[in-house]
Specification:
mainly beta, 472 residues, 5-stranded mixed sheet, Mutm (Fpg) Protein, Chain: A, domain 2, 3 domains, 7-stranded antiparallel sheet
C-alpha cells in the first residue's frame, strides 16, 4: 500500500481538445492510472502518482496542449513530511483552478475554463441593489420584547452597518424577479417596513456558521498560508474553497452573498463587510469577481481581483474598489435562505420581441425535439416519440443549459443523424457555445457540460447561430 498518493482529475470545460505532451514523476504512476493521451471537450479524466519507496513522497508534472495553442501545465508535490504543494498555468484565453488536494492520499480536481466573463443573467447592482448607501446614524436596529411590565430592550447599532442585510436583500429581489426599492434615501429606523426587512436579512446573514467564519478568519493567530498544525490558511480558503463555491452559485444562475474579512476580532464593528458576487472571469490564475457593494450604491463596476496561483507564500493581495475599512484578508461564501422582499419594483416591460423562436429539428418521422430560451436565459427542451408511453405528456421538459447561458432569445438545433443532436447559441459576452446529445449510454445531455466554440465578442449577443449538417 502506497504511503503517499496524489490523484489529479482534470475537467475540460472548454470547446477544444487537450492533447498530451509529456509528463514527469518522482515516485511512480499508479498502475492503470497513467496520464491520459487526450481530453475531449467537456470530458473529465484522471491519473495518479504514488511513492515507490518506504516513507517517501510523490511529485509530478504534466503538460497538455490546449487546442492548437500553448500548453496547460500542472505540478504537484505531496512530500513524506509537510503539506502538499501545487502550481499550475493555463494559456491565454483560459483559466485554471482546483479544489481538494489535501491529505496523504490527495485528490486534486482541476477545472479548465474559457477566460470569458460569466455573469448571472439579468442581475446588476443598479437594479437589484439599493440606491442608498450603507451609512446609518447611531440608533438601535430592533427591540427585544420583555415580560410585562418591563419595557422592550433596544439592541444593536445601525451605525455599525447593515451591509449583510442589504447584500442578502439584493438576491431576494432577484429571486422574486423584482428590482430593489426605488427609495434613494435611507429608511428612518425601526418601524419602517424597509428598515425592518433589511434588519431581518442582516440577522440571517449573521447566522452562527457565518459569524464563526468571520471570527475564525479574523483571528490574528490564524495563518495566511497553509500550516501543518493550524490547517488551511486564508489563501487556501479564498482560492480553493470560496472561489469554486462562488462559481458554482453563479453558474446555477444566482448571485452569491459573500463575507469579507478586513480586520481582526479585537473590534467586532470593523471585522469585515458583506457583498454579493454576480459575475466572474478567470484568466490564467487571475480571478476577477464583480460584486454589489452596499457601500457603493448603483455602481456596476465594483470588483475584486486576485492571483490564485499560489497559496504557500505571502497573503494573497486582493485588489479592489470595494469601500472597506481595511485591506481584504479573506472572503467566504455565506449561507443564504430565500425571503420575500418588501417594496420591490417589477422590471420595466421588454421592448421588442418577448420570446425567441423555437428550434425544432426532425431526426426521423416519428420523433420531434423542441428547444427554447427561457426568461432566465437557460435553454429548455422537450421531446416526442410516436409510440405509446413516449408522448409529450408522458414526461417533462428539462434543462439543456443553465440560466444565464444565452445572451438573447435564439437557439439553433441540428440533427446530424437520428441519434445525434447539436445545439448552438450566443452567450451574453458574445461567445458561441454548444451542447450535444448522442443516443448511447453515457452520452446524454447530463453526462457532460456545454462548451465554448468561439471566444467572447465573436457574435452579437442576440444573434442566431447558423449551423448545417453536411453529411445528410
Amino acid at each position: 500500500m502506497a504511503f503517499r498518493t496524489t490523484q489529479i482529475k482534470i475537467r475540460n470545460q472548454t470547446g477544444v481538445r487537450l492533447q498530451y505532451i509529456k509528463a514527469e514523476v518522482h515516485g511512480m504512476w499508479t498502475p492503470g492510472l497513467l496520464p491520459v493521451p487526450d481530453f475531449a471537450p467537456g470530458q473529465t479524466r484522471w491519473f495518479r502518482s504514488e511513492n515507490n519507496s518506504p516513507f517517501a513522497g510523490t511529485e509530478g508534472r504534466v503538460w497538455y496542449k490546449v487546442g492548437d495553442g500553448p500548453e496547460l501545465f500542472i505540478h504537484w508535490n505531496n512530500p513524506a513530511v509537510g503539506l502538499a504543494f501545487y502550481e499550475q498555468s493555463a494559456p491565454p484565453g483560459y483559466g485554471i483552478y482546483f479544489t481538494g488536494g489535501q491529505g496523504n492520499d490527495a485528490e486534486a480536481e482541476y477545472t479548465l475554463i474559457p477566460s470569458s466573463r460569466v455573469e448571472v443573467r439579468g442581475f446588476s447592482p443598479s437594479r437589484h441593489g439599493f440606491a442608498f448607501e450603507n451609512s446609518w446614524p447611531e440608533m438601535h436596529i430592533t427591540t427585544i420584547d420583555l415580560p410585562d411590565p418591563l419595557p422592550g430592550l433596544p439592541v444593536g447599532n445601525a451605525a455599525w452597518g447593515l451591509c449583510g442585510g442589504m447584500s442578502f436583500a439584493s438576491r431576494d429581489y432577484f429571486e422574486a424577479n423584482l428590482w430593489a426599492s426605488e427609495a434613494s434615501t435611507n429608511p428612518s429606523g425601526e418601524g419602517d417596513p424597509l428598515f425592518d426587512y433589511i434588519v431581518d436579512r442582516l440577522l440571517q446573514s449573521l447566522n452562527s456558521g457565518d459569524v464563526g467564519d468571520f471570527v475564525k478568519f479574523s483571528d490574528p493567530a490564524y495563518p495566511d498560508t497553509d500550516d501543518m498544525f493550524l490547517g488551511d490558511g486564508r489563501n487556501w480558503t479564498m482560492a480553493h474553497r470560496a472561489w469554486p463555491g462562488i462559481r458554482d452559485v453563479i453558474d446555477s444562475g444566482h448571485p452569491c452573498p459573500i463575507g469579507i474579512v478586513t480586520g481582526d476580532w479585537s473590534d467586532p464593528t470593523k471585522i469585515g463587510h458583506q457583498v454579493c458576487a454576480y459575475a466572474y472571469q478567470l484568466s490564467g490564475n487571475e480571478l476577477t469577481l464583480w460584486v454589489y457593494d452596499p457601500n457603493s450604491p448603483s455602481d456596476d463596476d465594483i470588483t475584486m481581483v486576485l492571483d490564485i496561483s499560489r497559496t504557500d507564500q505571502k497573503l494573497i493581495d486582493v485588489h479592489t474598489n470595494i469601500k472597506t475599512l481595511g485591506p481584504i484578508t479573506c472572503f467566504f461564501t455565506q449561507a443564504y435562505e430565500k425571503r420575500n422582499p418588501v417594496q420591490g419594483r417589477p422590471p420595466p416591460p421588454r421592448v421588442g420581441c418577448s420570446s425567441g423562436p423555437l428550434s425544432s429539428p426532425t431526426r426521423e418521422p416519428q420523433r420531434l425535439d423542441v428547444f427554447w430560451v427561457g426568461p432566465d436565459g437557460g435553454i429548455g427542451s422537450h421531446w416526442w416519440h410516436g409510440i405509446p408511453g413516449e408522448n409529450w405528456g408522458d414526461h417533462k421538459p428539462f434543462a439543456v443549459a443553465l440560466p444565464g447561458s444565452v445572451g438573447g432569445t435564439r437557439v439553433t438545433a441540428v440533427a446530424r443523424d437520428p441519434n445525434r443532436l447539436d445545439v448552438f447559441w450566443v452567450a451574453p459576452d458574445g461567445a458561441v457555445w454548444s451542447h450535444w446529445w448522442h443516443g448511447v449510454p453515457g452520452e446524454n445531455w447530463g453526462d457532460h457540460k456545454p462548451f465554448a466554440i468561439a471566444p467572447p465578442d465573436s457574435a452579437y449577443p442576440d444573434s442566431q447561430v447558423a449551423a448545417v449538417s453536411r453529411d445528410r
